[in-house]
Amino acid sequence: MITTKTLIETHLNRYPDMRVDDFIKLFYQNSFGPKHMSSVPDEEVLHAYIVNELDAFKPNVQSVDVEAIGHGFVRVSLSVIVKGRTTPKALAAAFKRTMDASAGVTEKTKSRFLCQIKTLLAMHDAGDITLQDEDPHQMVETYVNGPLAPIRHSEAYRRQYHPHYRVLNVQEAELLFKEDAEEDAHEQTC
Length: 190
Description:
Radius of gyration: 16 Å
Strand content: 5-15%
Number of domains: 1
Helix content: 40-55%
Order of helices and strands: HHHEEHHHHHEH
Number of strands: 3
Shape: globular
C-alpha cells in the first residue's frame, strides 16, 4: 500500500519544481477524480480537446506514460498517443467512463483530500520536504476555505514539465493498455 508520504516524496523527486498548487491538484485528482469535467457533453468534445492539446504537447523526460497518483487513479500522458499506444478517441472514451464513475466531492473524498494536505504541511513543517512557496500554510488555508474547485498546475510546473495528461481510474487504464497500471495505484492511506 502506498502512503501519502510516499506519494508526496515520489512526486517531489520526479518533479522537484512542484509547488503547493501542484500538490493540491494531485490530491484533488486522486480524491475526487475527474468528475468536475462531467459538464463536458460527450466523447466527441473530449476527443476534440485531446486532439487540440496534442498540438501543444512537448515530451517531458520526467513524465512516465502511466503514473500512479493513488486511490485507484493514474495520470495517462498524451505521450501514449504520440507513441502509438492508443488513439485520441480511445483515450477520450476511457476518460469519459472515468468521469462518469468518479465519486466527485463527498464527505469521504473531502476527508481524504484534507488528510493528504495535512500530511503535506506536516512533512514541510518537520523538514522532511521543502515547499518552495512563500507561505504554504496560507496558500492551503485560502484554498480549503473556498469551494474546493479544480486548480491549475503552477506556472513553474507548467513551464518545466509541460503536463498533458488525462486522469483515468486504474481499471480504465488497464483496459486501455491491456496491461497493469503502475503498481500501488489501488490503495493508499489517507
